[in-house]
Amino acid sequence: MTHTCTPPGLGRRSFLRVAGRGAAVAAVGSAVPWLAACGSSAAGGNGSGKGRFTVKLAWIPNAEYAGIFVGAEDGLYTKQGLDVEILPGGPNSAVVPMVTTGRVDLGVEAIPENVATAVARGSKLKIVGAGLLKSPESWISLADRPVRNPKEIEGKKLGITLAGKNTALVFMKRNGVDVSKVKLVPIQFDPAPLAAREVDAIWGFASNQPVSLALRGVRTHVMPLADFGFNRMQSVFFASQKTLDDPAARERAREFMTASRLGWEAALRDQKHAADVIIKRYGAKLGLKLDEQAKSLAAIAPYVKGDGSGAGPKGLFWMSDALIEETITSLTSIGIKLDRSLFTNELLGG
């Protein structure tokens, strides 16, 4: 049996799709105490019972976790002999501490630098799979005024979030952009400034703001950073070294990763079913819409596959030598310390 706790709030990426609704901010703020209650009811990680397995997500249930939810709905975890509990994330709901302290068996972090930073500070963790083999971070512009390559950034007014500013500057410098010819305008996650033509492009995610704007009838052009030499895996699965060193705990983690892979394969194969699962199980409490989730899943699918057509002979989640090197190079350029020892494919048959 698979249990799932669901917070009554909107997430980072779902928020974008309902930007402008006054209820959004209140809903996000209400998620934190609810999540704390949800987490306290869960059995501890790292072997609290035969077949019991707890996973902590970085954010609220939505299309970016479609494969996990399909795995739960279609009984793929049960077939592996697992009783899986899925804990959602939310504002100020950290994943790393719960994995480090053994309160959950495995975590899913949005970005690998959160795990790398914890390891640099002494935590014994390993990234064991990449949910997104290609980074969806992108410059997003209007279709009738597209920014198609880094040099076209020059002379433009760019909307940038505080969190994305450092990465954006590094990306521009690495691609020979004269930053003095660029005007950076602070924005929030809402893509409204682009729709209003207040800026020429915004920093965001290919699976996010373009979907939000498309639902408003605004067509966009997406320029992924990964297409111009700045790629890093994202939505990473990670576990503690203690879990990997314990034969029983390691086997449960391997079974979870196997079923999650199958879940994502099923979600990509039948995206309508995956969107239906998200709405059926979580939509009522989150206010999600079927067309939103279907479009979001279609938009994120190429990034799950990595190259837009497939994940290669090793399958989904597999961290190739090339991807690991790209991730190390990209993170090092923004000041994150890490090396190859952070990554292992051992739960994927490596």
Report the helical percentage. Answer: 40-55%
Radius of gyration: 19 Å
Strand-pairing-aware structural class: alpha/beta
Strand content: 15-25%
Q: For the report, how would you describe the main beta sheet? A: 6 strands, mixed
What is the total tally of β strands? 11
Query: How would you describe the shape?
Result: globular
Task: Please give the count of helices.
Answer: 14
Rounded mean pLDDT is 85
**Strand order, sheet with most strands:** 1-3-2-4-11-5
* SSE sequence, one letter per element: EHHEHHEHEHEEEHEHEHEEHHHHH
- Give the distance, in angstroms, between the N- and C-terminal Cα atoms: 29 Å
The poorly predicted ranges are 3-49
Description:
It is a single chain. The chain is α/β, with parallel strands linked by helices. The chain has helices at 12-17, 23-40, 66-73, 76-79, 96-100, 112-120, 165-174, 192-195, 209-214, 241-245, 247-269, 271-286, 290-305, 321-333, and strands spanning 3-4, 52-56, 83-87, 106-109, 125-132, 137-142, 157-160, 183-186, 201-205, 220-224, 234-240. The strands form two sheets. A six-stranded mixed β-sheet has the order 1-3-2-4-11-5, sandwiched between helices. Strand 7 (157-160), helix 7 (165-174) and strand 8 (183-186) form a beta-alpha-beta unit. The protein is globular and about 55 Å long. The relative contact order is 0.19.
